[in-house]
Design a protein that fits this description.
The protein contains 4 helices and 10 strands, in the order βαβββαβββββααβ. With 234 residues, it is mainly beta. Strands 1, 2, 3, 4, 5, 6, 7, 8, 9 and 10 form a 10-stranded mixed sheet that branches. About 6% of the residues have low confidence.
Length: 234
């Protein structure tokens, strides 16, 4: 599962994917609830939009589902209430990332590790997206990364707590990005597969000290927001 990643910078988005969102002041280190870019297919073209990391289903009352819905298991995505509408409508997206972070327990405790492309290029992660109407009437875009079992993957099986199932995001090959964005369900399923281990490099990247978290149910403090940062669903 991936709950922390580095969104691709605007300059690299334009250079590699040929698109950039209308706002470029998004976070460099994203967690569920942060706003970050996603890439959509519009006909034969691509478009970048900012969206919440963590899918918010149409039936959500408060928009806080992003806390649990930032990853969607490919085995159950078509049936889970939070994801099935996006899946049924083939609302595919690509999540551009300079790296994803996962916990490694090989030292006996959780240490954050960085997983990035071996050639330094941005990663293209397969995802699904959804629109949600906030109580005030605003339309909020959100997305979830799709994940697959990684128990047998020589890189991704190193991460997560001992005894837990190993999971991995789906990394699309550069020449499969447009095919993913335009795929029907059968074509999409065929692209949801493990990546070649040689595509990535990994190394320890401990999390920097973080500010104290607000009390449960409290809104993020101003210093914890990045414009646009965490959304405020007023």
């Amino acid at each position: 599962m991936c709950a922390n990643y580095a969104p691709t910078s605007p300059d690299r988005l334009r250079a590699v994917f040929g698109v950039a969102p209308y706002r470029t002041d998004y976070v460099a280190d994203a967690y569920p609830g942060h706003v970050a870019p996603m890439i959509l297919g519009v006909g034969s073209a691509r478009r970048a939009e900012l969206a919440v990391f963590g899918l918010i289903p149409p039936w959500s009352r408060d928009g806080l589902n992003y806390r649990q819905c930032y990853n969607a298991r490919t085995e159950t995505v078509a049936e889970k209430p939070s994801f099935r509408d996006a899946w049924k409508r083939a609302q595919w997206c690509v999540v551009p990332a300079d790296a994803v972070y996962e916990p490694c327990y090989e030292t006996g405790k959780a240490v954050r590790w960085r997983i990035e492309s071996a050639d330094g290029a941005p990663l293209a992660i397969a995802g699904i997206h959804q629109q949600w109407r906030a109580p005030g009437g605003d339309i909020v875009q959100s997305f979830s990364m799709l994940t697959i079992n990684a128990d047998a993957h020589p890189v991704m099986n190193r991460f997560h707590a001992p005894g837990d199932e190993k999971r991995s995001v789906v990394l699309l090959e550069p020449d499969a990005i447009d095919a993913w964005l335009a795929a029907d369900h059968d074509q999409a399923r065929a692209l949801l597969r493990a990546f070649d281990p040689s595509r990535v490099r990994t190394f320890s990247a401990p999390r920097p000290p973080r500010k104290a978290k607000p009390a449960a149910g409290s809104p993020p403090a101003a210093d914890d927001r990045h414009s646009p940062g965490l959304l405020n669903f007023d």
